[in-house]
Structure formats: structure tokens, C-alpha cells
Design brief:
single chain, about 150 residues, 6 strands
Length: about 150
């Protein structure tokens, strides 16, 4: 069963002080920083990552690059939460889904579809641990190659 991590991106942007500060200066910088961190997590763990942002377009958009994470932007008048709910409703029965969010109502909705949730703080720990694991693996590989 494939594992997916769906990230309520704005929830994380506003929960982490360093990203919130970046967002205050330039929203695009904060988004890019979060996407970079999530891409590193996906690369290190093999867990497929989907980031969902509140958008401003007339229709929902999906943006992704080969090898990168999937990124969704909700349509104008729609929230990222509604996109996340549709994803969880469609895929929770076929995949292991975890949603990172600080929104308690979203947590209840995800649980009702059989998904799991983690807090923004736990997401930070997951990302840090994945980075440490990757650094250890690189160090072991270098030792074997020497």
C-alpha cells in the first residue's frame, strides 16, 4: 500500500515562526521554502508528498515537476481544506494517508475517512529525522567507498 503525506500548506506556513516571517515579507518565498523541505522529505523517505495551498485562480490547479512533490492550489472561493477533504475521501481506502494540519476540524474530517493526521510540530520532527537519516546514509556510503 502506497504511503502519502498530504500537507495543509498554509496551516504549516503559519504554525512555523520562520515560515510565517518569510510569508510576511513575500508569500512566494515561504511557499518555496516549504516545498523545498517537503521535497527533501519525499526524496529521503520515498513517501509521496502532496502540498495543498489556498489559491486564487478560477479553477483548481495542480503543479508538479518530474521527481518533485505534487502541489495543488484551490480555486478562488474554495479552501485548501476542501481539496484535502476530496483527496482523502477518494484515496484513504486505497492508500495510507497522513495529513499534516493544525486545523482541528480538518483532523476530524480526515479521521472520518480513515486517514491519519499529524500536527505541524510533528511534521517538523518527521522532516528533521528524515534529513538526519539521509545524512547518516550518505556518511555510511562514503565510509564504504573509501
Amino acid at each position: 500500500m502506497a504511503k502519502f503525506l498530504i500537507v495543509d500548506a498554509h496551516s504549516i506556513l503559519f504554525a512555523w515562526p520562520e515560515l510565517r516571517a518569510l510569508h510576511g515579507r513575500r508569500m512566494a518565498l515561504a511557499r518555496e521554502a516549504l516545498v523545498r523541505l517537503l521535497t527533501g522529505y519525499q526524496d529521503a523517505t520515498g513517501v509521496r508528498v502532496v502540498a495543498v495551498f489556498d489559491g486564487q485562480g478560477t479553477k483548481p490547479q495542480e503543479v508538479s515537476e518530474p521527481g518533485g512533490i505534487q502541489i495543488f492550489y484551490s480555486a478562488s472561493g474554495q479552501t485548501a481544506d476542501s481539496v484535502i477533504e476530496r483527496l482523502v475521501a477518494a484515496y484513504a481506502s486505497h492508500h495510507e494517508l497522513t495529513v499534516a494540519t493544525g486545523d482541528h476540524l480538518e483532523e476530524q474530517t480526515v479521521a472520518s475517512f480513515g486517514g491519519h493526521t499529524i500536527s505541524p510540530e510533528l511534521l517538523r520532527l518527521w522532516l528533521e529525522e528524515a534529513e538526519l537519516d539521509l545524512q547518516r546514509e550518505i556518511a555510511r556510503h562514503r565510509q564504504r567507498s573509501s
